[in-house]
Design goal:
It is built from four helices and no strands.
């Protein structure tokens, strides 16, 4: 059975059962990146995710629902 778009919205970010990263980790990723000391590849290694995952987070393409400045 296909889910409606409205139902899919409930599973964005850490609410998605397949998510590897929490909202807190996402914020930490931003903090690391903004220091200018880490590449996407280095951050990906730290969090044991693909470099493209870090790129998605930093480009907001997968995490639009969350604010960079949250908490």
């Amino acid at each position: 059975e296909k889910m409606s778009i409205a139902k899919l919205g409930k599973y964005i970010g850490e609410k998605n059962p397949t998510s590897k990263l929490s909202d807190t980790q996402r914020k930490e990723i931003w903090d690391l990146f903004l220091t200018g000391k880490y590449t996407h590849k280095q951050i990906a290694y730290i969090y044991n995710v693909a470099r493209t995952t870090i790129t998605w987070i930093l480009s907001e393409s997968k995490w639009k629902i969350l604010s960079i400045n949250s908490n």
